[in-house]
Amino acid sequence: MRRLIVLACAIVFVDAALFGALIPLLPGYVDDFDLTKLEAGLLFGAFAAGALAGGIPAGIAAARLGPKRAVIGGLCLLAVASVAFGISGDAVTLGLARFLQGVSSAITWAGALGWIAAETERGRRGQVLGTAFGVAVFGFITGPLLGALAAELSVRVVFFVVAVLALVLVALTAAQPTSAREPWEHGAVGRVLRDPRFVAGLWLNTLPAFFFGILDVLATLRLDAGGYGVIAIGVVFVVAGLVEVGFNPIVGRISDRRGRLVPVRLGLGAAVVVGIVLAIAREPLLVSGLIVLAGLAYGGFYTPGMSLVADRAEIARLPQGFGFGLTNTAWAIGATLGSSLGGGVAQLTDDAVPYLLCSALCASTLLVLRRAAPRRRAA
Predict the structure, then answer these.
(1) pLDDT tens across 30-55, in order?
(2) Is the pLDDT of residue 180 over 70?
(3) Long-range contacts: 334-337, Cβ < 8 Å, 24+?
(4) C-alpha dihedral over 250, 18, 106, 172, to 10 degrees?
(5) CATH homologous superfamily for 2-378?
(6) Cα distance between residue 81 and residue 15, in whole Å
């Protein structure tokens, strides 16, 4: 089991690193291709769009073919997408390569996370998923350093190395023992989609993805306008991610012992404040600190959300791979809307508007959870 967890962590690490690699490269592409904020958001959001397109098919593949085969297929596609990104020379080709990376991400995450969730008992599931997601966050924060390295050395060489690493993971996955297929009862999909706790788990993946889609575009451009270079921007996101890496396993343990929604309520309150301050922040140093705080507030939603999905899928007799396929779809909806809609709204109005929208969504979610708690206790 330990080897499987390490393998799953390695897979999500590489995937998340590719997602974050565009952050320090984005200002350069904006200048090279003369992109607007909306176009920059569409380029960044192409990854999430690919994950959205591949989310449900990936879940079906992980459930029908087994997580092992799904992971191998996703890693092979990841290698192809990395090579395509490395040789791209215009915004459209870059966007298509990012889209393929997103599709591969949906497949590998559905397979890898579904695999470890199925092999872990419910009492430890939050901690295990929190560890895996913490490693994914570390991959995301390594991504800006990867992008900075590519900018300083060679985009082509760095992304070719990533492709080779993906093929190494294919070999390691092939050597892993195949687990038994999970049962898929008739009507299980309908049951979970009518389950408020399952839907809440999906929303807790959509909401932070929406916010981070906005933050990764607008905060990056704000830091660039404030005089931060590629390395400095990468360092800011690395620090934010390191804090989140250590925080997620703790959130997972709390959710195992105190309930899935206890850390979520605390995070929602903090997220409301962070969004409001981001809306008025202009100094690069203040924005940098808020990026770190945002990682704690919004990043704490993912682990309880994924644990809720896994718990309710198990009860409904739905394969974990398909459950995480739906989770990927929920995340992708938020990330796609965040980067594209956020960039477009900021271009038409002001950067403050998307941040205030996020605070409003968090406040509404917190209100719904507080109203639902007395009804659950009464039941």
Answers:
(1) 888 888 877 887 887 788 888 888 88
(2) no
(3) 334/48, 334/205, 334/206, 334/207, 334/208, 334/209, 334/210, 334/211, 334/213, 335/45, 335/47, 335/48, 335/51, 335/209, 335/210, 335/212, 335/213, 336/45, 336/48, 336/49, 336/52, 336/213, 337/210, 337/213
(4) -80
(5) MFS general substrate transporter like domains (1.20.1250.20)
(6) 11
**Please, are residues 269 and 299 in contact by the beta-carbon 8 Å criterion?**
no
Quickly count: other Cβ atoms within 10 Å of residue 371's Cβ: 9
d(CA 207, CA 363): 12
Residue count of the chain, please give it. 379
Amino acid at 65: L
- Distance, CA of 191 to CA of 183 (rounded, Å): 15
Q: Measured in Å, how far apart are the chain's first and last C-alpha atoms?
A: 37
Beta-carbon count within 10 A of 242 CB: 15
263 with 130: CB under 8 angstroms?
no
pTM reported for the whole predicted model: 0.72
pLDDT at 43: 84
Residue extents of the structural domains in the chain: 2-378
| Residue 248 near residue 302, CB atoms below 8 Å | yes
277: Cβ contacts below 8 Å, ≥ 6 apart: 286, 290
Nearest to 215 by CA among 18, 361, 20, 16: 20
Beta strands in the chain (DSSP E): none
**111-168, pLDDT tens digit by residue?**
888 878 777 776 777 778 777 877 877 787 778 778 878 877 887 888 898 889 999 9
DSSP 167-195: HHHHHHHHTSPPPPPPP--TTHHHHHHT-
Closest CA to 298 of 181, 209, 173: 209
Residues 96 and 324: their CA atoms lie apart, in Å, by: 24
